[in-house]
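Q: I'm writing up a methods section and want to include an example of the input and output format. Could you take the sequence below and give the corresponding predicted structure tokens, formatted cleanly so I can copy it straight into the document?
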Amino acid sequence: MKKFFSNIAVFFLIALVLFSSVSFTVEKHLCGGHVFSESFFGNAEKCGMDEGKCELASNIPSYSKKTCCEEEIQLKNGSIFEKEPILKLNNQQQNFIVFNLIDAVLFYRKENRAIHFKNYFPPPNTHDFNILYQVFRI
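A: Here is the clean output for your methods example:
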């Protein structure tokens, strides 16, 4: 049962990392300032007025060299891994921190604990416990 729950947890974490780092594009086809079609995974459908033929507000077709259609592509970045670092350190500051950590780890001196018991004298051992409990090593 424990292995089953751990497999579910692993699958959930894999899916979380996968979907939190996926990016996709949204492509829109604008015709006369209005959205004609929108697509998430492919090319947006064209309105068919690519030759420069546009309709005015009075529904009278007019011809011009400039088209009224536009393509708009937006990139939706879903990555959670492209965050700015909390600390911005230059190379000198990084070296200072690393060398201090190495110094602290490698050259750490433990206190001599015998100093704390310098004036301690244990009570005298008056009993021979081996004979008292009749425990002999052969």
